[in-house]
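quick q for whoever's on today - can somebody do inverse folding on this one?? i tried earlier but teh output was garbage lol. tokens:
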């Protein structure tokens, strides 16, 4: 399986602007800029997209891990916070809240660590990956 996205950038790094389009066109000429990346400007940015990819990948992997252990989650909600410092992504922090009937805190934590370690985006990132996990 292969997926793709295209970025087009025009102008200088600070004054220029760009657009992102994904293969599915869910993002279709979506604006990004210096302002949307380093300030509070309108549009998306690469770090936000990495955060979405990591949260989504982790949640799905956790569901697979739980299923293999005999549990079916009612809900898995994951927030990912990406830290960009000194020109590098230095941390990806996952906060997961899940409703899983019949699971113990220990079983849940084991599944979370497995998913964090083995989801494809975790494997891709060359950074410190931390987590918080709450059953609710």
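ok took a stab at it. sequence:
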């Amino acid at each position: 399986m292969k997926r793709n996205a295209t970025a087009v950038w025009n102008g200088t790094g600070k004054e220029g602007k760009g657009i992102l389009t994904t293969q599915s066109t869910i993002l279709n000429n979506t604006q990004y800029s210096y302002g949307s990346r380093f300030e509070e400007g309108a549009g998306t940015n690469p770090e936000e997209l990495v955060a979405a990819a990591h949260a989504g990948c982790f949640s799905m992997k956790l569901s697979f891990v739980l299923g293999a252990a005999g549990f079916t989650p009612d809900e898995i909600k994951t927030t990912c916070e990406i830290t960009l410092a000194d020109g590098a992504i230095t941390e990806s922090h996952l906060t997961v809240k899940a409703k899983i009937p019949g699971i113990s805190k220990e079983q849940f934590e084991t599944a979370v660590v497995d998913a964090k370690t083995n989801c494809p985006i975790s494997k891709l990132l060359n950074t410190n990956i931390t987590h918080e996990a709450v059953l609710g």
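fwiw The chain has two domains: 5-38, 46-135. also The longest helix spans residues 46-68. so keep that in mind when u check it
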